[in-house]
Amino acid sequence: MARADSAPGRIAAQNRRARFDYFIEDTLEAGIVLAGTEVKSLRSGRASINESYAGEQNGELFLFNAYIPEYQLAGQFFQHEVRRPRKLLVRSRQLGRLFASIQREGMTLVPLSIYFNDRGLAKVELGIAKGKKKGDKRETEKARDWQRDKARLMRAKG
């Protein structure tokens, strides 16, 4: 019998603001190295990646500033640090391409979501992003509003 919290493709944390603040040019999936209590805490769905980012440290890719709360049912000696840097697992070919892309001006790696795949492994969806300016954000909002109004008009007429 499968539990509801281990359903395939279950999203543990999502950065909803990322697509508003950045132009996402490309996405990729990366594995993440977690402690046991971190996995349990992610399954409860209280993690936050809103202020987090991915970057290079000692030639490896890490996720910085991601908040995964302590797992309350674990003892106090087995707890993890809530905002520690977590290593991301990508192929070496992808790693070189990522490092080259973030060296370009204005490009950054933004985590879009943390989820569990169909095998139950925690994965991070990363986006290679370029920051939006204030006018770009207004333009995006205007286009979204127009699409919503257009859908309402089409629904009303037909």
Automatic annotation (TrEMBL):
InterPro entries: SmpB (IPR023620), SsrA-bd_prot (IPR000037), SsrA-bd_prot_CS (IPR020081). SUPFAM superfamilies: Small protein B (SmpB). It is found in: Cytoplasm. Residues 131-158 are annotated as: Disordered. GO terms for cellular component: cytosol. One of its GO terms (molecular function) is RNA binding. Residues 136-152 have a biased composition (Basic and acidic residues). GO terms for biological process: trans-translation; trans-translation-dependent protein tagging. Keywords: Cytoplasm, RNA-binding. The keyword Iron does not apply. It comes from the Bacteria. Required for rescue of stalled ribosomes mediated by trans-translation. Binds to transfer-messenger RNA (tmRNA), required for stable association of tmRNA with ribosomes. tmRNA and SmpB together mimic tRNA shape, replacing the anticodon stem-loop with SmpB. tmRNA is encoded by the ssrA gene; the 2 termini fold to resemble tRNA(Ala) and it encodes a 'tag peptide', a short internal open reading frame. During trans-translation Ala-aminoacylated tmRNA acts like a tRNA, entering the A-site of stalled ribosomes, displacing the stalled mRNA. PANTHER family: SSRA-BINDING PROTEIN (PTHR30308:SF2), TMRNA-BINDING COMPONENT OF TRANS-TRANSLATION TAGGING COMPLEX (PTHR30308). Belongs to the SmpB family. HAMAP family: SmpB (MF_00023). This is SsrA-binding protein. It comes from Rhodospirillum centenum (strain ATCC 51521 / SW). The gene is ssrA.
